[in-house]
Amino acid sequence: MVIVSGLSGAGKSTVLGVLEDIGYFCMDNIPPDLLLNMISIMRHPSIENKRLAAVIDVRSGESFNEIGKVVDKLKKMGIEVKIIFLDAKEETLVNRYNLTRRKHPLSDGKSSIEILVQHEREKLVKIKEMADYVLDTSLMNSHELRRRIVSFIEGDLNRSLKLSIESFGFKYGIPLSADFMFDARFLPNPYYVGELKDKTGTDKEVQRYFEQFEAVKEYISKIVEILEFVIDNYSKEAKDTLYITIGCTGGKHRSVYIAQKLGEIFKDKISVSVSHRDISR
Predict the structure, then answer these.
(1) pLDDT tens digit string along 215-251?
(2) What per-residue confidence (pLDDT) applies to 257?
(3) Last-in-domain residue among 153, 176, 211
(4) Which of 22, 60, 138, 149 allows an S-S link to 92, with CB 3.0 to 4.6 Å?
(5) pLDDT on residue 157
(6) Are residues 145 and 167 located together in one domain of the fold?
(7) CA 85 vs CA 16, 56, 88, 101, 271: distances in Å
(8) Mind spelling out the 3-state secondary structure of the chain?
(9) What is the per-residue pLDDT across 141-156, written as a single tens digit (0 to 9) for each?
(10) Same domain, yes or no: 13 and 147
(11) Domain limits at 244?
(12) Which of 153, 173, 201 is the last residue of a domain?
């Protein structure tokens, strides 16, 4: 049995479709207790397909809280249970909801999508901890998601960690989904240098400006040391992507430069993506 759970908008319907394509009997939005009833049905001699997949999430209401007890009972019955948890960055989930204009399952008609996502994330803490595979879909298209799921189910999953580095400006808000956040506001600021004010951390003039400061080099070195340690340990877990954010005041100079440098340092060691949230603001 495969149990699929996770945040609304993270791709659970897509995963269920993939599982159906590879031969699973699939059900969506199932209260946990019903899984126990399904076992007796699936064990009937007339049913040849003995593989069952179900999406279980906060739509089940209060019964969702019983998922831990149900999984324990299933394992005691001799059922092989795998739990896939789909996660995504808050910004990604909000954008997906804005595009589809679908109603969030926890919607009360008053709260914003951001608040609803946070509330849902809190409710999912337990099942995320139980999961055999936590997959972040923020940077994935449907084809990549399908490949990951098929690989996991077939037991040939390459769990190599990916590093996502993003610069941002504190004045525009903190990225809430970051695994690690580094503050660069204490470093020299080229914003106050006339010819550099309108440039960004990707420009050579700004890069040369930072290269003259030992504090900048030392800070980057310390960040690298921390990241090498956590990457080595996170790689042993079922985590797919490690989100690192670098912040400065406006998100155009210091954070951008450091994000670029980290990308260059790690590109030959691990799969890396670098983005700049506020560089064009």
Answers:
(1) 999 999 999 999 999 988 776 554 567 899 999 999 9
(2) 98
(3) 153
(4) 138
(5) 44
(6) no
(7) 12, 10, 10, 23, 22
(8) CEEEEECCCCCHHHHHHHHHHCCCEEECCCCHHHHHHHHHHHCCCCCCCCCEEEECCHHHHHHHHHHHHHHHHHHHCCCCCEEEEEECCHHHHHHHHHHHCCCCCCCCCCCCHHHHHHHHHHHCHHHHHHCCEEEECCCCCHHHHHHHHHHHHCCCCCCCCEEEEEEEEHHHCCCCCCCEEEECCCCCCHHHCHHHCCCCCCCHHHHHHHHCCHHHHHHHHHHHHHHHHHHHHHCCCCCCEEEEEEEECCCCCHHHHHHHHHHHHHCCCCEEEEEECCCCC
(9) 888 888 888 888 876 4
(10) yes
(11) 162-276
(12) 153
Residue with tokens 């010819």: 195
169-201 pLDDT per residue, tens: 999 999 877 899 999 999 999 999 999 999 999
CATH number for position 54 = 3.40.50.300
Report the domain count for the chain: 2
Residue located via tokens 């790689």: 235
